[in-house]
Amino acid sequence: MSSAENAAQQLKELAADIAREAGDPAQRRRAAGVSLAATKSTLADIVTEADREVEALIRDRLHRERPGDGFLGEESGAGESATGVTWIVDPIDGTVNYAYGLPVYGVSIAAVEGGAEVGRWHALAAAVCAPVLGELFTAARGSGAWLDSTRLSVTSDTTAGALLATGFGYDPSTHDGDLQTMRQVMPIARDVRRSGSAAIDLSYVAAGRLDGYFERGLQPWDFAAGALMVEEAGGALTLLDTASARPMVIAGGADVHARLTAILDNR
Ligand code: IPD
Ligand code: CA
Prior knowledge:
Blueprint: H1 3-32, E1 36-39, E2 46-48, H2 49-65, E3 70-73, E4 77-79, E5 85-93, H3 95-100, E6 106-113, E7 122-130, E8 135-140, E9 145-147, E10 150-151, E11 162-166, H4 175-185, E12 189-193, H5 198-206, E13 212-216, H6 220-232, E14 236-240, E15 248-252, H7 254-264
Parallel strand pairs: 3-5, 11-12, 11-13
Antiparallel strand pairs: 1-2, 3-4, 5-6, 6-7, 7-8, 8-9, 9-10, 13-15, 14-15
Helix pairs in contact: 1-2, 5-6
Bound molecules: D-MYO-inositol-1-phosphate and calcium ion (CA).
């Protein structure tokens, strides 16, 4: 293992440890009942107190272990990096599922270099913990993607059509466009899933549980960890509309990724 791979591996172990730890209070708080602390752009975008508490836990722990690193979290904004490493964190990805008592949500933590600006960073390590599902996905640059101790690979044979996942942002004014995009993509799909967590969708692409994924309008913390998972599982991931801070993310095995890109690039 090269020294860069070794360093990435250590970041991954830290990310995994913290993601696992952070999953506990998320689950405990949910069991105790969620109270809605605030709403963001629209009513559908529910921000729970748990979100904030879990992010504070992750941020504090990272600060203790690696005080010079930068931090970008969904709830607490960006902090500068003195080491070149920045952590991009979604404390609870899938907050609507969380608020409704659905089990598909996860803690998503990525370590990147190159800053946290979309399209500029180079991911080093990632962890996505889905506490209710009891699963921990991890990846380190150059050392593969893993579900617990099983190495992951994306699918390659989709002759019967691709099982795709996508998501719809919380802004109702974008839904018509998203539905048109769906119509364009359907010819290559055997079926479509909408799980409610981009981090878990991308982890599932890495695990071969989905053949492909696309979504417009994601934030860095939604996909930073999952993107590395897909790449380290042998898949491809690209961003379209990179002039926007919230691009379209396309992920899958080589063939599905190419077919999705051909459709989405011309939409
Ligand atoms: C959301 C989830 C969802 C995706 C949305 C994201 P949040 O993140 O990842 O699957 O469709 O675009 O905003 O709000 O649950 O952290
Ligand atoms: Ca999210």
